[in-house]
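Fig. S4 source data, part A: sequence.
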Amino acid sequence: MLFDRDKKILFADEVLGSVSLVSIMNSGITIMKPKVKTPIVELDGDEMTRVIWSMIKEKLILPYIDVHLEYYDLGIANRDVTNDRVTMDAARAIAKYGVGVKCATITPDSERVKEYRLKKAWPSPNATIRAYLDGTVFRKPIIAKNIAPAVRSWQKPIIIGRHAYGDIYKAVDFVVPGPGTVSLVYQPAQLGMPISFKVHEFEGPGVAMGIHNTDASIRSFARACIEYALSEKTDIWFAAKDTISKNYHGHFKELFGEEISARSADLEAAGIHYRYMLIDDAVAQLMKNEGGILWACMNYDGDVFSDMVASGFGSLGMMSSVLVSPSGAFEYEAAHGTVRRHYYEYLKGNPTSTNPIASIFAWTGALRKRAELDKTPEITIFAQQLEDTAIELIESGVVTKDLINLISPPAKSFETTESFLDKIDAGLARKRTALQA
C-alpha cells in the first residue's frame, strides 16, 4: 500500500523492500521524527571507531529523531590541543545533562605519543570521566540467537560490574633510575606525625608505583552493584585477592560486605545471593557457571575480564557498556578500542569490515535512558527498533567479518561496515514505516 505524498507518510513494508531511508527522503517523502526533549552529551573519539561513529549518527540517528547533541571532540589531536581540558569539560556536561554517549578513544603510550606528535602521554579519558562522575561501569554481552558462547556452560549473560575509580588508573608511577629507597608517606591533615612505609630498597634501576582508592568510592561501587543486581534480578559475585593484599584488597572485601549486609533484606526478598571469592577462584568458577550473574570487579580486573566475557559470547563488538554515577548521570560507550588496524586500511582507501554493534548499542542505550528520564516513550520505541533491527540482521546470517565463523551456520560472505549499516538502515526504515502507517 502506498500512502499519499501530502500526508508525509512513508511506504508500507511490502513496498519499501530494501530501499534506504535516504533514497526515500530524496524522493520528497519525509518521515515524522520524534523529539528528544533534553540534550545528550556526545563524546567523539578516534580512528576507525570515529569513522563508524559518524556513519551511525548520519545514517541511523539524525534522519530518524530530532535530538540536540552537546558535542565534545575527545579525539587525541583535540585532547592534545586543549591540554586535555576538553575531557573534563565533557565530564561536567554529562553531570549537567545526565546522559552521555561516547565513542572509543586512544589512551596514548610512548609509541602513540610519537605517532601523533603529542605533547605528552595524556591519561585515559575514560578514567578521567569515571573519576569525576565516581561511577561504576556495567558491561553486558549483546546476545544473538545464532552465536553460541565459546564456553559451553554459559547459557545466560554474564554482566561485569567494574569499579571505575582509582587503583592503577590513578597511579603515580615512575622509572627508578638507580640504587635508592622508595617509600610511601602518610601525612595526617591534622596534627600528627607522618607515617612512612618502605616500598623497596633498590640496588639498581627498576620501577615503582603508588595506587589508592577511597572508602566513599568503594561503597558507591558496592551500592551501584546492589542496585543493578536488584533491577536485573541477578546474583552478585565479588572477587579480590585479600590473601596477598591483606590491607588494600582486604579493605575492599570488608566494605563491600558491609554494604551487602545493609541491604540483605532487599536482596533476600528478591532471591539474590552474594558470594565473595578470591579472584583466581572466581575465574575458575566462572568457566563452569551457566551465567546470569553480576560479577563485581575491581578496576583493572573489570577492564580485563569484560573483554574475556565479550569474546566468550562472540566478539568485543558485541558488548554494551554504561557508566553509572551515584549522582544519577549515565555515560554509554562501546566497550572495545579504536580498531587501529582497520583504520590504517581505511586510510589506504581499502574497505573494512568492522563490527558497529557495540557503538550502535551505545547510542540506543543513551537514547533509552534519556527517554526514561524525559518520559518520552516514542524515543524508547525507536531505540528498541534500532536494536531489534541490528540483531535480526545478524540472526538472518548477515554479518561483519568478525562474526562470519561464529554464527551457526557459518556465513559464506561478510559485509563491509558501510554495507552492514546500510542494511540496518533499510530494516529500520521498514519498521518506522510500519509504525507510522
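Fig. S4 source data, part B ends here. Confidence is low (pLDDT under 50) at residues 1-28.
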